[in-house]
Amino acid sequence: MNIMLFHSTYGLRPAVHAAADRLRAAGHEVHVPDLFEGRTFETVEDGMAFQEEVGRDELLKRAVLAAAPYSDRGLVYAGFSFGGSLAQHLAFADEKARGLLLLHGTSDIADGASVDELPVQLHIADPDPFEPHDWLTAWYLRMQRAGADVEVHRYPGAGHLFTDPDLPDYDVEAAEEAWRAALGFLDSL
Q1: pTM listed for this prediction
Q2: Residue 112's pLDDT is what?
Q3: What whole-number distance in Å separates Cα of residue 58 and Cα of residue 51?
Q4: CATH number of the domain that residue 174 is part of
């Protein structure tokens, strides 16, 4: 599978490269663009301030430009938290998208958005301060209305970015469970 993997608001850190290596070891081709042009952050607040400074439209443009050379081959879009939000936007805009793997984050869905049975898998902490239950319920229903084939995996007690071993949110058990399910999802596409 050809995968475009977007980093979180912390930037392109070692955990993202480790995730890409894990996917490559499973036989996938993985592209990991640096949307923050070398900047990384120690706190989510600093990362969010940088995103506001650069602007959402500019970051989305960078994501589109990173994916463009590979999109004709049918990408699986994937991302961590903020990167998941970008991945979702790109997957909905790419009629050749093969799937969408969301780790720790979702995004709003435009009214009238439509995908043709796009396979989607979401891995989310339960509860998650950035993805409240009401939001996730509404997101799930909108995804189904748009035509996506959605599978949600919740991890009770895990922190928001529970797959990142360099952050306090890390939960080794939840992370390994998420990666097993994610690799199975990718193999099914």
Answers
A1: 0.97
A2: 84
A3: 9
A4: 3.40.50.1820
Fill in the DSSP letter of residue 45. H
Write out residues in the chain with pLDDT < 70, as ranges: none
Give the residue from 124, 135, 119, 133 showing the smallest Cα distance to 177. 124
Task: Tell me which residue range forms the domain holding 65.
Answer: 2-188
Peptide bond into 132 cis (omega under 30): no
- Tell me how far apart the alpha carbons of residues 29 and 20 are, in angstroms, rounded to a whole number: 9
Into how many domains does the chain fold? 1
**How far are the Cα atoms of 23, 105, 147 from residue 163, in angstroms, in the given order?**
14, 12, 28
How many residues comprise the chain? 189
Which pLDDT score, from 0 to 100, does residue 110 have? 84
Tell me the CA distances in angstroms from 133 to 29, 91, 102, 124, 128, one per residue in order. 33, 23, 16, 11, 8
> What's at 185, amino acid-wise?
F
pLDDT score for 92: 96
Burial degree of 42 (CB within 10 A; 0-12, 13-18, 19+): exposed
Residue written as token pair 């996938």: 28
